[in-house]
Design a protein that fits this description.
The chain is of the alpha/beta class. The chain folds into 2 domains: 64 residues, Orthogonal Bundle (Helicase, Ruva Protein, domain 3), CATH 1.10.8.10; 215 residues, Vaccinia Virus protein VP39 (Rossmann fold), CATH 3.40.50. The chain contains 11 helices and 9 strands. The strands form 2 sheets. The chain has a 7-stranded mixed β-sheet with strand order 5-4-3-6-7-9-8, with helices on both faces. Strands 1-2 form a two-stranded antiparallel ribbon. Strand 4, helix 8 and strand 5 form a beta-alpha-beta unit. The protein is elongated and about 80 Å long. The chain starts with a helix and ends in a 6-residue tail after the last strand. The structure holds S-adenosylmethionine. The site of S-adenosylmethionine has 23 residues, from helix 7 and strand 4.
């Protein structure tokens, strides 16, 4: 029977040859997933024997990883803000960058609920996650608001125009016990019949079409529709901006994830919106532009 160490050494060698920059990590994570333990369990027990069935499943995963398939799809899981999300080819693998959007949304909701005097009987804050994919934003937000005991005061709608993605998002909501606390709806961007929203959240496709072919091969396993943002990467986001005057409440805020090179582009797009709108771009922990915060210019009462 092969040991953990022998399987890992062989796998690392193969994955390096296939071009993976993270061969050791990939091998450890995949073997741990096959064995049903966490990665430290694999690292701590190099001498442990691995049964033939598990070794065969590991071999299958390796072949797929050698072909470039992302580790998250092979494991079937991706962590977002410490929460495990089911992940497969139905939707984009949630990226760490998106955690910033969830944190900003949570802070915005908390501020509104704590600062704005709510005397009871008021309708819940209305939040929409546009292009929810695996449900990462809507579900992580719901879980974090539940921890703060604020979930009852918020109504969360999540939309996507890809029915497969919505199915995965619903599964993730159920997996995190918020299946009855967020609604999932097939729609092109935002359904106008549910407006107005206090918060519009979106991580829509923002990769420039000409850049798609240059991305790592793992990306080619993800739905192209989830990535392709048109000629300047902002085509879908611009369509959402055009809807904001109709779907955002008077004092509402939109938080939109953008690429690190799109700060000037999104701010220019905001100046083209009808009416008076203002945009600022929030940075991520690496100091990169990451989330555009867009709202109406506030009227100063005489
Ligand atoms: C970049 S992925 C983000 C998924 C998820 N929000 C996340 O952060 O991991 C973009 C998502 O937007 C969806 N999408 C693209 N165009 C859309 C449209 N016009 N209306 C609704 N959803 C759209 C895609 O199907 C995909 O799930």
């Amino acid at each position: 029977m092969a040991t953990v160490d022998a399987l890992l050494r062989d796998a690392v060698e193969r994955l390096r040859r296939s071009g993976s920059d993270t061969a050791r990590l990939d091998a450890e994570v995949l073997l741990a997933a096959v064995l049903g333990v966490d990665r430290t369990g694999v690292i701590a027990h190099p001498e442990a024997p691995v049964g033939d069935g598990a070794a065969a499943r590991f071999a299958e995963a390796l072949v797929r990883r050698e072909a470039g398939e992302p580790v998250a799809y092979l494991r079937g899981v991706k962590e977002v803000l410490g929460l495990a999300f089911a992940s497969d080819a139905r939707a984009l693998i949630p990226r760490p960058e998106t955690e910033r959007l969830v944190e900003l949304a949570e802070a915005e909701i908390t501020r509104r609920l704590v600062e704005g005097p709510r005397e009871g009987g008021e309708p819940p804050l209305r939040v929409v996650d546009v292009g929810t994919g695996s449900g990462a934003i809507a579900v992580a937000l719901a879980v974090r608001l539940r921890r703060r005991r604020m979930l009852d005061e918020v109504d969360i709608l999540a939309t996507d125009d890809a029915p497969d993605a919505l199915e995965l998002a619903r599964e993730n909501a159920v997996g995190h016990a918020v299946g009855d606390r967020a609604r999932f709806r097939a729609a092109d961007l935002v359904p106008g019949d549910e407006a107005p929203f206090d918060l519009v959240l979106a991580n829509l496709p923002y990769v420039r079409t000409d850049v798609l072919a240059t991305l790592p091969v793992a990306t080619s396993f993800e739905p192209r529709h989830a990535l392709d943002g048109g000629h300047d990467g902002l085509a879908v986001i611009r369509r959402l901006l055009a809807l904001l005057p109709d779907v955002l409440a008077e004092r509402g805020v939109a938080l939109l994830e953008i690429g690190a090179d799109q700060e000037a582009g999104i701010l220019a797009a905001v100046t083209e919106m009808p009416g008076r709108w203002t945009g600022v771009v929030e940075r991520d922990l690496a100091g990169l532009p990451r989330v555009a915060r867009i709202k109406r210019v506030e009227r100063i009462e005489p």
